[in-house]
Amino acid sequence: MKRFRGAMNRLAAATLAAVVLCAPASAQRRDKALEAALLAHVTELASDAYDGREPGTEGEAKTLRYLGQQWFDIGLESGTNDPRNAWFAPVKLVAREPASSRAVFARKGRPQFVPPGSTEVFTSGKRTLLNSAPVLFVGRGQGEMGRAELAGRVALLLDGGSDTSERQNALLKAGAAGVLTVLDGERTLDQVRARRGRSGYALAAEELGGDLEAFITAEGIERALAGTPITLAALRTMADATDFAPKALDLTVTLEATTRETRINTHNAIGRLPGRRPESGAVLLLAHWDHFGECAAPPAEDLICNGAIDNASGLAALTEIARRLAKGPAMDRDVYFLATTAEEIGLLGAEAFAEDPPLPLGQIVAAFNLDSFALAPRGAPLGIVGRGLTPLDAGILAVAKTQKRKVVEGESANVYIRRQDGWALMQHDVPTVMVSSSWSDLARVERFFDTDYHRPGDQVKPGLDLSGTAEDVAFHVALVRHFADPKKVPPRSK
After folding, report:
1. 5, 161, 304, 462: most buried, per Cβ within 10 A?
2. Contact between residue 325 and residue 335 where contact means Cβ atoms under 8 Å apart
3. In the chain, what are the domains?
4. With contact defined as beta carbons under 8 Å apart, do 88 and 60 qualify?
5. At residue 75, does pLDDT exceed 60?
């Protein structure tokens, strides 16, 4: 902790002069002291010393120590409401990666030879076995099928298009015992193995299902169907018929898959700024702290994904919003500050918070996610990810008007809604949006995605412009104060 104290004292001194309460952005001079404070946070959290802030590593420990010390010095209290785990709420993850697979076909009880290496089977469970299940051809899986015709059967599906995964999931949800996809298009089995061979993550408390998803090459299915009156060409013709109906094939299949399991202990950081009337509800601000650790391999010179913009910038903004709110007049509602883990591997920290919250979720009148806050320069308009999907729009626009901030029209930024922590909270009926100048220009966002995003290039570079981030910090101070006022924003209906 000593190594950080000098930097933290300098940060605190630098930001004392930056306390401005909710004045309109256009009426303010450029807040260079705030920009310096934000840069100090981003530089620290995105340094190689944090090794990419991967959950379950020393990089996590350093990140949480830094945030905890900052938040304590600002004057926040622990927000976990758990004396056993002050400030840091444990999140247990399980990672599973494919270990083995087997697919055996039979016709009238006799094995059908399929060339080795022409099938691959995956499961979301530790080990899943389906023995001698009948095969039902479902074409391209685009029609509706009832549980009665799918139950106990393996659905044989023709590949094609980017929505194959959605069709597989729909068949499993509808009652299929497993899905066997024929790779009869451009996609190869090696490509499937490369994509599906990565670890899959979930909360350890979740009961991971035993779904079976199998893939077979065109040659493999031809051999599996040998001796039956059906060929792959016939299957294609049937699938494209306007009167297509699922067809039971004279074929059974045994599918088996296993996975290797790794447990990861990680944490959310939760702070709280107490309000005068906590019974009136709370406002939540959140930003994910995690990134990918060492994401490149030799002979690359730079191996670390530092995550400067994604999302050291969000953590910096979160911390400086907290500092300004703590220095200003007390609010009626509590304000919670949440730094989530495991966003990058499935929004799992936000999901863990929602499943075991420190306060009833119905008391949260508004939640604002801060992600990749350093993309736009000073003077850029605001974009809203989640516009039209929550009751928060009117309040956001009202604050934008008082702050003289322009807001981009329309809902085009919602294309990113599922890619950030707010989506996990929305699934638990917590009204959550992202409001930031970073999300006002989708072309600019896509340029970031195409270059430094999730790569070692996302690091602090000379001339990093945090003037837009500083403006967004000031806006969020006003935004939180608006939603923390029960006279302006009534409690959510029970």
Report:
1. 304
2. yes
3. 2-91+266-483 (3.40.630.10), 95-261 (3.50.30.30)
4. no
5. yes
